[in-house]
Write a structure and sequence with these properties.
By secondary structure, the protein is mainly alpha-helical. It contains eight helices and five strands. It has a three-stranded antiparallel beta sheet, with no helix packed on it. The protein has a two-stranded antiparallel sheet with strand order 4-5. Helix 3 packs across helix 4.
Length: 229
């Protein structure tokens, strides 16, 4: 189960320095991949189409995200439930927002800073990564990190990041960003690691062994020696 609801949280001390819910959420430890979604976008009901069917306590969760939920309107238990729903709802909204013009700009800044980490592949030379989902269906797969140089995906190093729901970023985001900002995409790496033994490429050694086996069989035939079964 990925951090779609209650796991995407932080310590109480994190919220002491944040006036708004979205600010608190994006500053919480483990949520560094997320950008802040503009309130105008969240308040436009067109952008939230069909989300009410997927999120428990939808209206109250939306009020919490937009700082419109009265402090004493709920019991502590009810507030915890609404807060879990608010985190889930924000993740789903975030997936839609980051493929808008404004969302792409914010994620571009994070990409340039290397907020998502850098490719672990040696020949990618620390190329910055982008978050991507393997599926757009929530609660199925965790977020992965895409390298636009080797065009492969990797697991996040941090356990907190590794447990974030990939649907909160979606399958299209990194490719959309590179379409809008094509100058970001580096030339593909032509360097490849070649396994060697004592300086010889492995495939060359394999060819040598095959040739030796063939010569051995030919020698046995000439000598009239049958191969063991």
């Amino acid at each position: 189960m990925y951090r779609t609801l209650n796991e995407l949280s932080s310590t109480d001390s994190d919220s002491e320095y944040c006036k708004y819910w979205v600010e608190w959420f994006t500053y919480a430890e483990g949520n560094e991949y997320f950008c802040d979604v503009d309130e105008e976008y969240i308040l436009d009901r067109f952008n939230l189409t069909n989300l009410s069917n997927d999120v428990p306590n939808y209206l109250q969760a939306l009020e919490m995200i937009t700082d419109r939920l009265p402090e004493k309107a709920l019991s502590n238990e009810e507030r915890d439930q609404v807060e879990r729903s608010a985190r889930y709802l924000y993740g789903l909204i975030h997936a839609r927002y980051i493929i808008t013009t404004q969302g792409l700009k914010k994620m571009l800044d994070k990409f340039k800073r290397g907020d998502f980490g850098r490719c672990p592949r040696v020949y990618c030379h620390q190329n910055p990564l982008l978050p991507v989902g393997i599926t757009d269906v929530p609660s199925q797969k965790g977020v992965k990190l895409y390298c636009c140089r080797c065009e492969d995906i990797y697991n996040p190093k941090s356990r907190r990041h590794n447990m974030i729901d990939g649907a909160f970023f979606g399958t299209s985001f990194p490719h959309m960003l590179l379409q809008v900002y094509p100058a970001l995409k580096p030339a593909p790496s032509e360097q490849r690691y070649v396994p060697r033994i004592f300086g010889f490429k492995l495939h060359a050694i394999a060819e040598l062994h095959r040739w030796q086996d063939e010569q051995r069989e030919e020698q046995k035939k000439r000598l009239g020696i049958s191969s063991p079964t």
